[in-house]
Amino acid sequence: MFEPKKNDTKIDIKFIMLKDYAVFSLKNLRSRRLRSWLTMIGIFIGIAAVVSLIGLGEGLRIAITSQFGFLGPDVLGVQASGIAFAGPPGQAVASPLSDELVSKIEKVSGVEASIPRYIESVTLEFNDRQKIVITGSIPDGEDRKVIETMVNLKTEQGRLLKDGDTRKVMVGNNLKEDDEFGKGIKVGDRVLVNSVSFEVVGILEKKGSFIFDNNIFMNENSMVDILGTEKEKVDVIAVKVKDQSRPISRNCFEKKGMLTRGKRIFRWKARSRLLKR
Fold it and tell me: Is the pTM of this model over 0.90?
C-alpha cells in the first residue's frame, strides 16, 4: 500500500493554504471594490511621488553643481563680502574690491596668477527684442590665455576674442536659440549692448551653466571705454594656484593684511564639499 511522504504532505498543505488565501483575497477585493481601488490608487500615487521627489532632488543637485563645474580645483574666486543689494556678484556691496588687491594677491606664496574680472548688467537687444544679461570681461595679453585655460573657454561657432577686438562680443550658447529673441543669434550678427552696436564673433560651447550659457563676454577695454566700467572697482578676482596639491589657506591672505576690511575668500574645493553635504 502506497503512503505519501511527509514532505509531500507539507507541500500539499502549503499549496492549499496559498490557494485559499488567493481565493479569499480575490473575493474580498470583489466585495469591497471601491476600497480596493482607492487603496491601489494610493499605492500608485505614493510610489510616483517618491520617484518624482528622488528625480527632482537629483536634478536639482546636478543643476547646482553644474553652475560651478567649469571651475577646476586649482581656481579660487575672491569677491567682496557683505550683501549685494542688486546686480551681479561684486556689485552694490558696501566695500568693493580695489585693483590694488590684485597685485597684493599675486605676491602670496603659491599663487600663479591673479586676474581682475569686471561684471556688468546690460541690456542686450537683437531682432527688436531686449533682454537683461550679464557681460563679463576678458583681459588682454597673457592673462587672456590664463583665463581661457582656467574656465576652459571654447567656442562652438566662430572664434574667441583677441587682443585689440573693439565692439566685438562672444555670446553664450543659449542665445543662439530661437526662443530668446525670436530668432537665434549667429556669428556675424550685430547686437546692441546698452544701445551700442557690437559684432558677434563667437558662440561659446554649452557648459550647462547660466553663468556662461545665458550671458555675453567682451574685452576688458571695451567695457571700460564703451560701457563706462570703473576699472578701479573690481567685481571678482580670479586666482590660479601653482600646485593644487598644496592649497592656499585663508591664513596666507590674513598674514598679508588682505582680509581685514570685510573681504571674503571662496575656494572651489570648499564649495564643492559644501554641495555634497
Answer: no
